[in-house]
Amino acid sequence: MQIFKEKQPLITTLGSYKSSGKTIGLVPTMGALHEGHLSLVKQALEECDKVVVSIFVNPTQFDNPQDLEKYPRTLEQDIALLKQAHEDLLIFAPNANELYGEKIISEHFDFQGLEKVMEGKYRTGHFDGVGTIIKLLFTIIQPDKAFFGEKDFQQLQIIRKLTEILKLPVEIVGCPILREDSGLARSSRNERLSSLHREKAAFIYNTLKKSRQLFGTKSADYIVKWVEDEFKNYPYLELEYFEIADTQTLKKAEQKKKGAQYRAFIAAYADDIRLIDNMPLNN
Ligand code: PAF
């Protein structure tokens, strides 16, 4: 296990691996690691010779200062967890100035509309922040492959678009969502849920599953209305959005098109904790 707080020693170490023909995998994280992250690390270790796990709570992707402040920071625990996963990982845990320099600001990106819907609509500037940090990490680490969870499916498609726009030679690997026994998607935010809300939040997964069943026979509009009504009658969660969208363009499904693939996307609040999830509907 090698831990780097500064980029230059990491670049030097990776350079020597690369010159001896080793492939590099990157798992970018914001820490507070859980089984979901470990599954990304496992997949990266299967597909690459050396794996870097970055741990950095990226300030520019938070639109809400309280959310940034409350985001769990558990570096020691994260390192211990990664040590159990594999002795030979490289951990990159820099501070903000090491990555950004003096000015901790986002670059602006045009992700051709992918950034305007759903999370982009409700979290102003979020994807500029994500694009900025991923571009910085890719520039430093120059991975052959980078691994992201499908829980943040919109983020995954935007990072694919980022690499296409910047013509970066990195393969973006999407990894399946890991769920708690109840079906709730694993997330660092789950730790902040009360035990009641943690149990009741399984409603999100159950609603997605029912939407998937309905998708065989009902229109997208019908299902959206049905989900909105379900949430109105459920006192434990507040729905922010539910959308059925084309997997590639993330545009709302107005009429189902033959051959197109669709996903349902959801964001809901349990108290002040924002949860997101998604599910493929027709594959
Ligand atoms: O998904 C996350 O944890 C973050 O958005 C990421 C990709 C690590 C960028 O900060």
UniProtKB/TrEMBL annotation:
Q: Does Cytoplasm count among this protein's keywords?
A: yes
Q: Fetch the Gene3D superfamilies from UniProt.
A: HUPs (3.40.50.620), Pantoate-beta-alanine ligase, C-terminal domain (3.30.1300.10)
Report residues binding beta-alanine. Answer: Q61
What pathway or pathways are given for this protein in its record? Answer: Cofactor biosynthesis; (R)-pantothenate biosynthesis; (R)-pantothenate from (R)-pantoate and beta-alanine: step 1/1
Give the residues the record marks as binding ATP.
30-37, 149-152, 178, 186-189
Q: Does the keyword Cytoplasm apply?
A: yes
Q: What is this protein called?
A: Pantothenate synthetase
> What functional role does this protein have?
Catalyzes the condensation of pantoate with beta-alanine in an ATP-dependent reaction via a pantoyl-adenylate intermediate.
Chain residues that bind (R)-pantoate:
Q61, Q155
